[in-house]
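Dear colleagues,

As part of the handover before I leave the project, I'm documenting each prediction I ran so the next person doesn't have to rerun anything. This entry is a single chain, and its sequence is reproduced below.
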Amino acid sequence: MKVMTARDAKNHFGEFLDAARREPVLVTKNDRPVGIMISLEDAKDTLLADFFIEKDPGYDEWLSGKVSRTMERVASGESALVDHNDAMAQLKERIAARLRQTP
């Protein structure tokens, strides 16, 4: 993942946009992460797309229930949290598998 300061992103906006089309770009300010820029192509296969589409009735309740049940399983020890890097690797593989299935 590319990292750019907020100042560099502002001063080199075209380069910033080009970089975000190739890979996610982490934006920092005062050496702290403050945001991330991803391409629309990358966003379409994530939950981010849910913010921009019309949802079926009951979707928000379904999602809230699913997250709540997962958090309960984690709290009870029935499930464990996955390391960030492992979770990202699993997510990328799931997306790749889904794309391979798409005609």
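DSSP finds five helices and three strands in the chain. The helical segments are 6-11, 13-22, 40-43, 59-76, 84-101.

All the best with the project,
I.
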